[in-house]
Amino acid sequence: MTETGDGPTVLVALANPRTEGALVALAGALAEREGGRVLAIHVVTVPDQTSLEKAAENRERLDDSSAELLDAAVADAAAFDVPVRTKTVLSHRGIEEVFDAARTSDADAVVMGYGGTRFAGGRVEGSLDELARDLPCDFLVLDGERPDPSDVLVPTAGGPSSDLSAEVAAALRDVAGAEVSLLHVVEPGDEETGRAFLADWADGHGLADATLRVETGDVEEAIERVGEGYGLVIVGATERGLLSRIVRGSLASEAVERLDAPVLLAERPSSRSLRERLFGGR
């Protein structure tokens, strides 16, 4: 498909063939919703002790391996009405290269897998903390190989990253036909107030048709208990620095770690909404 127009760019960072299809499906749904495009990149992390020049001598072998992954991405993206570009990058810097690609391509969102140190390369400390405080765009990080986006749960207590979660759920509903449920956890006795909050929040985020679930008790225990019944749980970051923890091999909370259901973690860098960033221009 030929790339046209000024629609949003959704960058999908690929590293693992087992998660490629799921990541491309998420990126494709986001891009298709408002006429955007997908940029699929494969960052080949080169060990620090190996020079990039030496790695480039094996470029043909690396290109063959990368081409297989990126060809699969193009094939999977064909299910969506979006143009796709691909790129292979040799780098010592791993996750930093993803940040650079997001900036240089003017990406509106990044979709990537939870690979622990897979993306980290040999230079995690220091610079990554600085990067995590200055995200170039919205980040969506999938933990799980085979999510089922037909049945999605979005826990929310409000906040910018929950807004991002809602926007992703709406895209999956509109493009992939997902059934969306919203979860809000309250103290015992506050169920009526909680349901009123959740109904208002759903209406304000274009999810008035979602199933509303109000639970009582501990928030993390409720997410773990309810989330087991869904094909995908979209969890907004409750604090800054999600990316820093993820690359070091630590997810957002114990509840998320324990969930058997695939989890999509969302972090928003500013008050600007994904709809504004993705679909409303710059």
Q: Count the E strands.
A: 10
Class in CATH?
Alpha Beta
Count helical runs. 11
The major pleated sheet works out as: 10 strands, mixed
Quick take:
By secondary structure, the protein is α/β, with parallel strands linked by helices.
Write the layout of secondary structure elements.
Elements: E1 9-14, H1 17-33, E2 37-45, H2 52-57, H3 59-77, E3 84-91, H4 95-104, E4 109-113, H5 127-132, E5 138-143, E6 151-155, H6 160-176, E7 179-186, H7 191-204, E8 211-216, H8 219-227, E9 232-236, H9 242-247, H10 254-258, E10 263-267, H11 274-279
Helix pairs in contact: 1-3, 1-6
Structure write-up:
The protein has 282 residues and is α/β, with parallel strands linked by helices. It has one domain (9-279): Rossmann fold. The chain is 41% helix and 22% strand. It has helices spanning 17-33, 52-57, 59-77, 95-104, 127-132, 160-176, 191-204, 219-227, 242-247, 254-258, 274-279; strands spanning 9-14, 37-45, 84-91, 109-113, 138-143, 151-155, 179-186, 211-216, 232-236, 263-267. A ten-stranded mixed β-sheet has the order 3-2-1-4-5-10-9-6-7-8, sandwiched between helices. Helix 1 crosses helix 3 and helix 1 (17-33) packs across helix 6 (160-176). The longest helix is centred in the first third of the chain and has 19 residues, at 59-77. Mean pLDDT is 80; it is low at 1-5 and 116-128.
